[in-house]
TrEMBL record, chain A:
Recorded GO CC terms: periplasmic space
Species for this entry: Pigmentiphaga aceris
UniProt name for this protein: sn-glycerol-3-phosphate-binding periplasmic protein UgpB
Similarity comment text for this entry: Belongs to the bacterial solute-binding protein 1 family.
Keywords annotated in UniProt: Periplasm, Signal, Transport
GO biological process, one term: transmembrane transport
Assembly and interaction partners: The complex is composed of two ATP-binding proteins (UgpC), two transmembrane proteins (UgpA and UgpE) and a solute-binding protein (UgpB).
Gene: ugpB
Predominant place of localization: periplasm
Residues annotated as transmembrane: none
NCBIfam families noted in UniProt: PRK10974.1
Automatic annotation (TrEMBL), chain B:
Known partners and oligomeric status: The complex is composed of two ATP-binding proteins (UgpC), two transmembrane proteins (UgpA and UgpE) and a solute-binding protein (UgpB).
Gene: ugpA
Descriptive protein name: sn-glycerol-3-phosphate transport system permease protein UgpA
NCBIfam families: PRK10561.1
Membrane topology classification: Multi-pass membrane protein
């Protein structure tokens, strides 16, 4: 018995040795560490992407490592950098952009890296609203746009039909939305409209969509001394409008983050503003026909609608790596930029295609016809951007979002007026911006 | 090495200095590495204003502290933390004691009761929070729907008091099992003869509890009081993060949650370190007060 066991172990050991020996050429490849925050199907997809890249050549081996949620992955990257063991590539969510951009000496701008590695790179191949978000002051791409999403408007077609509304004509403006919500309510719908990500959708994207400033200095792109402008008459008007709708029971606050999405697919709320990347989730859970449309806007505002801004994340490259390693990273990014790779990623995840070629390819393939509404996000983004609509580049943006959400909650609860809430948010946000400016001088 | 028996206890006296320090070394090293060193780092970091990567930093003295104490939200967080800790510690102890006394009297299926009561302790804080969150979810929660039927409009997303109640319930539910275990062990170590003698003397159950059981439980109660205050101060952030994220309007953002929010999510290490130092001071003062004033009433 014992001898047989030993024999079996010996055989197993031999098999293992053979496996290692045959894998040896792969081990000789330059190892590229990619730290990310993708879970579930997205994690499978990112692993699939790297496997496909690894198989396509034999010089480099990209190793994806899941590092927790977005904030956790960012913290892991920062801690690793401080300990001198930073990965090559780190996925950072969009609100961490200013933190990364100001980490002088810690990161290697992607466009610089591509050029040094001798890898062809065409800035104009990328969708302007996506590339613009991650561009430095001189227009160079600082990080590689990977998974970008943008808010869109979802509505319950069955509920629309029941309320006597045209299921093929979703509300285009905020006035039409209020009318639709009232009709839905009188047809017995418990909640007309709700929103996920209140600060991202109702303030950041709202500003870009109406081509008004979120903060001075081109929303922070022009320097660290930017200060918030979200208590402008238009912002106050919008929040006041939502507060009034809330009082009439037409708008229901559904919580922070994407908590409100369950109220939509449970059928409680008939209209929802949510990230385009929420598509898969909604499609899986909704038991009714739903439509996707552009975000509502105020038609009397000049320049509206402009374009929406992005969420999601991008890939950052750390500094102080060797030339062969950068070459590998550059090859990997080139691979990710390929129209067919990008198009597949876009179609499978609901994230935006980051290159116009990938969008064209998806359109030609008939994907948008088979999945109506999935092109709304791209349509909202693909137009030209202005200095006010490029995005929001502010330090401590995660905390600023918390602050604005706290103040908004107090508005919805009727504890303060829209004006008081936004004034307070600006004051508290500006204090944070001052701190960030000092810490990053 | 001298061994002498004092009052039934074996006392070992080591001669020389090397061996005792050697024996203490593992504990001392752990304390230094995992407590003193991080505490010193927090102190140093609280005097700095720096970027997340630690590339540029500036010595700012006590400015991080003065900024904190001129922020109304931070001061509000103090009142909130005091109310929250009191609610969690007091209700956690009272409920656990009640359950322990009842479980101690049960004879049939006692193990089943005990297992069920200990169960919640095995649940991770975040999962506990999500569980209660589902029950009280304004949209789909069973308890929220039941409350609506009796005329209570439950919406902890907008109602600060309800959100506060939710995090207190979750935190207490998590901690009751731990308290229960200690109370039950304490109750079982009380000699039966004392209670029987009192019963023969004509003392009723309440009187027996008040004059015999409770005083004999006082060391356990005191220990649990300290542990529960520390629990309420430090271990509840996962519950709050999963249930309310400090909302609505900052009405459940207790001190430790703000430390986590500003340091971990916000990457404002200077302010976060200053907040940790404040929190450390508060807990030190509380612990000293507990030992100086309450410890005197405890009979060991």
């Amino acid at each position: 018995m014992r001898i047989r066991l030993h024999f079996r172990q010996y055989v197993l050991g031999l098999a293992g040795a053979v496996a290692v020996a045959s894998a040896a050429p792969a081990l000789a490849a330059t190892e590229i560490q990619l730290w990310h925050a993708m879970t579930g199907a997205l994690n499978e997809r990112i692993v699939g992407l790297t496997e496909e890249f690894n198989k396509s050549q034999s010089d480099y081996h990209v190793n994806p490592v899941y590092k927790g949620s977005y904030p956790e992955a960012l913290n892991a990257g920062i801690a690793a950098f401080r300990a001198g063991t930073a990965p090559h590539i780190l996925q950072v969510f969009e609100v961490g952009t200013a933190t990364m951009m100001n980490a002088k000496g810690a990161i290697k701008p992607v466009e610089v890296m591509m050029k040094e590695a001798g890898e062809p790179f065409d800035r104009t191949a990328y969708v302007p609203a996506v590339a613009g978000y991650y561009a430095t002051a001189n227009g160079q791409l600082a990080s590689f746009p990977f998974n970008s999403s943008t808010p869109v408007f979802y509505y319950n077609k069955d509920a629309f039909a029941k309320a006597g509304l045209d299921p093929e004509a979703p509300p285009k403006t905020w006035t039409e939305l209020a009318v639709a919500a009232a009709k839905l309510k009188s047809s017995g719908q418990r909640c007309g409209y709700t929103t996920t990500w209140p600060s991202w959708i109702q303030l950041e994207t709202f500003s870009a969509w109406h081509n008004v400033e979120y903060a001075t200095k081109n929303n922070g792109f022009g320097g660290l001394d930017a200060r918030l402008k979200i208590n402008s008459p238009l912002h106050v008007r919008h929040i006041e409008n939502l507060a009034n709708l809330s009082k009439q029971g037409l708008f229901t606050y559904g919580g922070r983050g994407n908590a409100a999405v369950s109220r939509f697919f449970s059928g409680e709320c008939a209209m929802l503003t949510e990230s385009s990347s929420g598509y898969a989730n909604i499609k899986k859970n909704a038991t009714f026909k739903f439509g996707i449309a552009s975000l509502p806007y105020y038609p009397d505002v000049a320049g509206a609608p402009q374009n929406t801004i992005i969420g999601g994340a991008s890939l950052w490259v750390f500094a102080n790596k060797t030339a062969p390693e950068y070459k590998g990273v550059a090859k990997f990014f080139s691979y990710l930029s390929k129209p067919e790779v990008q198009a597949k990623w876009h179609q499978e995840t609901g994230y935006l295609p980051v290159t116009t070629a990938a969008y064209d390819l998806t359109r030609k393939s008939g994907f948008y016809k088979q999945n109506p509404g999935t092109d709304v996000s791209v349509e909202q983004m693909i137009v030209k951007i202005t200095d006010k609509s490029r995005g929001v580049r502010l330090g401590f943006l995660p905390q600023i979002r918390d602050v604005t959400e706290e103040e908004l909650e107090n508005v919805w609860a009727g504890k303060q007026t829209a004006k008081q809430g936004l004034d307070r948010a600006v004051q508290r946000g500006d204090e944070l911006l001052t701190r960030f400016e000092r810490g990053n001088r | 090495m001298n061994t002498s028996a004092v009052a039934g206890q074996k006392r070992v006296v080591f001669s020389g200095l090397v061996l005792p320090y050697l024996l203490l070394a593992p504990q001392l090293i752990i304390t230094v590495v995992f407590f003193f060193w991080p505490a010193a780092q927090a102190l140093w970091q609280s005097t700095q204003m720096q970027d997340a990567f630690g590339i540029g930093s500036e010595f700012v003295g006590l400015e991080n502290f003065t900024t904190l104490f001129s922020t109304p939200e931070y001061l509000a967080s103090f009142r909130l933390t005091a109310a929250f800790s009191t609610a969690v510690a007091v209700s956690g102890l009272v409920i656990a004691l009640l359950l322990a006394v009842m479980a101690n009297r049960v004879i049939r299926a006692a193990t089943a009761y005990k297992t069920l009561l200990i169960w919640p302790y095995a649940v991770a804080p975040a999962i506990a929070a999500v569980l209660w969150l589902f029950l009280f979810s304004p949209a789909v929660g069973i308890l929220a729907l039941a409350l609506r039927h009796v005329g209570v409009d439950w919406n902890h997303l907008l109602n600060g008091d309800q959100a506060f109640l939710l995090v207190v319930i979750t935190s207490v539910w998590k901690q009751v099992s731990y308290n229960f275990l200690f109370f039950l062990a304490g109750l079982q170590s009380i000699p039966r003869s004392l209670l029987e003698a009192a019963a023969i003397d004509g003392a009723g159950p309440w009187r027996r509890f008040r004059t015999i059981v409770f005083p004999l439980l006082s060391p356990t109660t005191f220990f649990l009081l300290v542990v529960n205050v520390i629990y309420a101060f430090f271990d509840t952030f996962a519950v709050i993060d999963a249930a309310t994220q400090g909302g609505p309007g900052g009405q459940t953002a207790v001190l430790v949650y703000k430390v986590y929010q500003d340091g971990f999510k916000g990457l404002d290490f200077g302010s976060s370190a200053a907040q940790s130092v404040v929190l450390m001071l508060i807990v030190t003062v509380l612990t000293v007060m507990q030992f100086r004033f309450i410890d005197r009433r405890v009979q060991y």
